[in-house]
Amino acid sequence: MPASADMSVRDWYSQTEEILGDVLEHQDFSMQTWLALGAAFQLFAVAWLPSTLSFWLPLAWLAYRLIKTALDSWNVHRSRLWSGIRKGRWMGRLPESEKSLSEASRGGTSEGVVMFLLGARLNHPMGKLGPGAIQINDVFNDMWREAENNRSKWGCRTATLVDFSDPERPPTIWISYWKDLIGLQKFSEGAAHRLGQNMYNSGKLPFVGIMHETYYAPRGCWETIYDNMPPWGFGKFYLRYRRTVKIPGNDESGDMKPFEVLTQSPKGSTMFRRMGRAIDGAELAKG
Fold this sequence. Notes:
Blueprint lengths: L8 H12 L10 H18 L2 H24 L11 E7 L5 H7 L8 E10 L10 H17 L1 H4 L1 E8 L8 E7 L2 H8 L2 H11 L6 E10 L8 E4 L8 H4 L1 E5 L7 E5 L2 E3 L6 H4 L6 H5 L2
Antiparallel strand pairs: 1-6, 1-9, 2-4, 2-5, 3-4, 7-8
Helix pairs in contact: 2-3, 5-8
């Protein structure tokens, strides 16, 4: 989208970051490449800038980073790294009905969870600077935007972009969580996914590799735990899922109370307890 004449610098920067933010990242180049780029930048600085400025500029930046790290280390819990962390031990739960909600109030999980991994790898020497990078980035963004817009119909709970370690070309992987397999199928039939699928099948992206994996964990077979972590993966769903639900009470109507997906994990809870099972692993192994 071209920048308009009345667009502010801040708006232009935000728009550019949205377009290129996922296309070019620091892990897309090796340490040797970054060092070589830094050396080249320094050579240009020495050649084109006053000698005093070219000498002190990198030292000033290094001093700034060292001082900032020292100040953050002085009081770690007040540093920027802790700004989004939920302190303590948390677990996720998803009540979708009055019956499951009553079970979740006892510390267990409720409905089943579908996890869908969708990824792409740019098999080109130039990586994300190669042909097809911008197109595949646009396709992914459009797909997840469509999933978000149809969340009430398709049941996409949340999606998280994950960077995997790959010495050659780090793949782009999205981990998403869905209410059921039917909703995931509806997502695959959506306009944005169809457009990307047709583009790939037509051979317009010859250097792009595509993968997906689908897993379904039925009720009582999944659990989560987050200890001093920012909302991540399944836990990010709490940001969008705050709502008022009906808690079964003594009367038939029940009481209306707020509900959050993330809740404090009971002290001493085990994996099986968080799944809502009444038996522990040893008893399960006995059959």
